[in-house]
């Protein structure tokens, strides 16, 4: 046990499904100090972040939409370790959020998906110049890291693979960040998957899903009742090998989020993927 002051943590997207879960996890961690709760939702302005997250006691941290003043306030606190901002907002705003945080020297732990490869490269350059750690993690669950590792192992032996990702129907982006990352990891072997055997015609556009790197197809399902699920299906003559991950509670992401908050202070550049910090 060290006597170090707790790490100041801001949660952006604090009123959302993931934000509320992060508020609870941070509040219960003795080495972390929730100092700010940002959300642009007008419905929740000034509400106590702890009460909104379902904690029995208020945390005395009000929800506010004032991101830049909060970043400035935390950056100005010289008594505490550098601040960390956890972002679970929206694909449209996450790029600007990360740039603002890095500009203030606040370390971004990013769960929000939907960043383009160009945006990620630009953010990596910006974090490098600022010598500031930045973590972009498409999926914080350990089960998904294990699925991806098993998929990479299998891909040496199978030439045919497709991905199906299934999510709740409030998800803004498709395909999921996790499915894109899974295809990238499979593609890193330098192999081209799914060599065409016949000329295919889509009678309805999109019937065969989207085509990611190295020819891997991704199919996106959106339905109420789902949380987050992914299948990676390998096929070869006479056999099918299916890997599947299911989430039943967003609490599954919290060990990964807390690990990222603790690890980011030692980083000086952008790191993409939970597997890199385990
Ligand atoms: N990496 C991972 O392991 C995981 C990643 N995700 C990703 O996290 C993101 C959020 O997911 P989820 O919590 O389900 O979404 P929600 O819609 O439930 O929550 C997002 C919250 O952020 C608010 N918000 C949107 N834009 C801004 C902004 N510019 N500034 C401040 N607040 C904003 C929203 O307000 P309003 O509703 O009023 O717009 C909402 O309260 C998604 O991209 C999702 O894919 C989700 C689960 C796990
Ligand atoms: O929106 C979600 O819910 C999730 N989003 C992430 C993604 O796009 O991969 C992670 C997880 O699948 C849940």
UniProtKB/TrEMBL annotation:
Binding locations of (S)-2,3,4,5-tetrahydrodipicolinate: 168, 177-178
Compartments where located: Cytoplasm
Gene designation: dapB
Assigned protein family: Belongs to the DapB family.
Record-annotated active site: 167, 171
Function: Catalyzes the conversion of 4-hydroxy-tetrahydrodipicolinate (HTPA) to tetrahydrodipicolinate.
Organism: Nostoc linckia FACHB-391
Keywords from the named record: Amino-acid biosynthesis, Cytoplasm, Diaminopimelate biosynthesis, Lysine biosynthesis, NAD, NADP, Oxidoreductase
Segments forming domain Dihydrodipicolinate reductase N-terminal: 7-140
Pathway this chain belongs to: Amino-acid biosynthesis; L-lysine biosynthesis via DAP pathway; (S)-tetrahydrodipicolinate from L-aspartate: step 4/4
Domain Dihydrodipicolinate reductase C-terminal, residue spans: 143-278
Enzyme class: oxidoreductase
EC identifiers of the protein: 1.17.1.8
Catalyzed reactions per annotation: (S)-2,3,4,5-tetrahydrodipicolinate + NADP(+) + H2O = (2S,4S)-4-hydroxy-2,3,4,5-tetrahydrodipicolinate + NADPH + H(+); (S)-2,3,4,5-tetrahydrodipicolinate + NAD(+) + H2O = (2S,4S)-4-hydroxy-2,3,4,5-tetrahydrodipicolinate + NADH + H(+)
PANTHER family named among the record's database cross-references: 4-HYDROXY-TETRAHYDRODIPICOLINATE REDUCTASE 1, CHLOROPLASTIC-RELATED, DIHYDRODIPICOLINATE REDUCTASE
Gene3D superfamilies: Dihydrodipicolinate Reductase, domain 2, NAD(P)-binding Rossmann-like Domain
GO molecular function, one term: 4-hydroxy-tetrahydrodipicolinate reductase
PROSITE patterns: DAPB
Residue sites binding NAD(+) per the record: 13-18, 39, 111-113
Protein name stated in the entry: 4-hydroxy-tetrahydrodipicolinate reductase
């Amino acid at each position: 046990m060290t006597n170090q002051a707790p790490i100041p943590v801001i949660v952006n997207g604090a009123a959302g499904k993931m934000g509320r879960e992060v508020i609870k996890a941070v509040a219960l961690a003795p080495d972390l100090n929730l100092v700010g709760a940002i959300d642009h939702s007008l419905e929740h302005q000034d509400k106590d972040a702890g009460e909104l997250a379902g904690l029995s006691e208020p945390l005395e941290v009000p929800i506010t939409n004032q991101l830049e003043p909060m970043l400035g306030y935390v950056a100005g606190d010289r008594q505490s370790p550098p601040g960390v901002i956890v972002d679970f907002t929206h694909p449209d705003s996450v790029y600007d959020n990360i740039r603002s945080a890095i500009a203030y020297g606040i370390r971004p732990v990013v769960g929000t998906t939907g960043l383009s490869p160009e945006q990620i490269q630009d953010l990596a350059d910006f974090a490098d110049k600022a010598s500031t750690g930045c973590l972009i993690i498409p999926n914080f669950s350990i089960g998904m890291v294990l699925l991806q590792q098993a998929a990479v192992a299998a891909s040496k032996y199978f030439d045919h693979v497709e991905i199906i990702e299934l999510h709740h129907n409030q998800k803004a982006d498709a395909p999921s960040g996790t499915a894109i990352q899974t295809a990238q990891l499979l593609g890193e072997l330098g192999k081209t998957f799914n060599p065409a055997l016949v000329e295919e015609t889509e009678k309805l556009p999109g019937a065969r899903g989207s085509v990611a790197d190295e020819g891997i197809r991704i199919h996106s399902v959106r339905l109420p009742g789902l949380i987050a699920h992914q299948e990676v299906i390998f096929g070869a003559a006479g056999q099918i090998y299916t890997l599947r991950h299911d989430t039943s509670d967003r609490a599954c992401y919290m060990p990964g989020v807390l690990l990222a908050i603790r690890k980011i202070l030692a980083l000086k550049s952008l790191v993409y993927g939970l597997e890199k910090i385990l």
